[in-house]
Design brief:
Elements (H helix, E strand, L loop, with lengths): L4 H8 L4 H17 L3 H15 L1 H6 L10 E5 L4 E8 L2 E5 L7 E5 L1 H8 L5 H6 L3 E5 L1 H13 L4 H16 L10
Parallel strand pairs: 1-4
Antiparallel strand pairs: 1-2, 2-3, 4-5
Length: 176
């Protein structure tokens, strides 16, 4: 195998991946906030429909029909209003009055979706919070924790979890 001393020297001067993520973190958060809502909506409705396919087929998501859930990802400053429509999950970008609000950081929502942390711990430690109709919020929490995400939804949540494991701790710091 051929040796490339110049390449080796250049690579040795690169910062470790954690430092790169720490520097890129504010930029990533800013960019995510600026993704046009129609793109967010299209992607999230597809991910939710695929991720909750079984719950949709069995009627386990029917409790959300006619009710509004607002998901707030505090460290990304994202707010999504979600309900169950006739054909599956619907996400809108308007000022509807939510029945329940679930708020937390991206890291904590990913932990809930991947079942990598106990959901009650996330709520008791106030890393995730519910306001409004708490019974509805608990139904959402329990469904999210009980559903094993498959397909694109599972792949995305596992990829996010892997990325967050290597990211700096400030990625999970609440910005409240």
């Amino acid at each position: 195998m051929r040796d490339f001393p110049i390449t080796r020297r250049l690579l040795s001067r690169l910062p470790p991946p954690q430092q790169v993520l720490a520097r890129a973190h504010p930029l990533l958060k800013t960019q995510l906030r600026h993704i046009p809502f129609p793109l967010q909506q299209r992607a999230m409705e597809k991910i939710m429909a695929e991720g909750f396919r079984e719950a949709l087929q069995t009627g386990a998501l029917d409790f959300l029909q006619g009710r509004w859930l607002r998901i707030e990802i505090s460290d990304l400053q994202l707010r999504w209003h979600i309900t169950k429509g006739v054909n599956g999950p619907v996400m809108i970008n308007s000022a509807v009055q939510p029945d329940v609000v679930i708020r937390g950081t991206l890291r904590d929502f990913v932990a809930l979706a991947n079942q990598s942390e106990d959901p009650d711990t996330l709520f008791f430690q106030r890393r995730l919070s519910i306001s409004g109709n708490t019974d509805l919020g608990l139904q959402v929490k329990n469904l999210m924790f009980a559903t094993e995400l498959n397909g694109l939804a599972g792949m995305l949540s596992r990829a996010l979890e892997t990325l967050l494991q290597f990211s700096p701790s400030q990625f999970s710091a609440p910005s409240r």
